[in-house]
Design the sequence.
C-alpha cells in the first residue's frame, strides 16, 4: 500500500520499473508478486493523474497565450 505522500511522477516510474523487474525475474513468491502488482496498479493510476493534470495545465497555458504570443489554432491535417 502506498504512503499518504504521493510519489513524484519520476519516483513512481522508477518504482514501477523495479516492480516489473522483480515480477519478471520470478524470484519472489506468488503472494509477493500479487502485492507488488497491486502497488504497481496504484502507481500507474498516480502517473495517469499527474499526466492528465499536466495536459490540462498545458492546454490552459496555450489557450491563454500567457507568453504574450497570440496562439494560432492547430492546423488541420
Sequence:
Amino acid at each position: 500500500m502506498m504512503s499518504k505522500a504521493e510519489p513524484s511522477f519520476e519516483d513512481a516510474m522508477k518504482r514501477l520499473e523495479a516492480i516489473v523487474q522483480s515480477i519478471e525475474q520470478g524470484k519472489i513468491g506468488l503472494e509477493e508478486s500479487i502485492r507488488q502488482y497491486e502497488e504497481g496498479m496504484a502507481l500507474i493510476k498516480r502517473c495517469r493523474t499527474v499526466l492528465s493534470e499536466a495536459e490540462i495545465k498545458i492546454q490552459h497555458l496555450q489557450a491563454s497565450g500567457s507568453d504574450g504570443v497570440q496562439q494560432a489554432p492547430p492546423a488541420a491535417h
Q: What stands out?
A: The radius of gyration is 19 Å. DSSP finds two helices and no strands in the chain. The mean pLDDT is 86. Residues 9-62 form one domain.
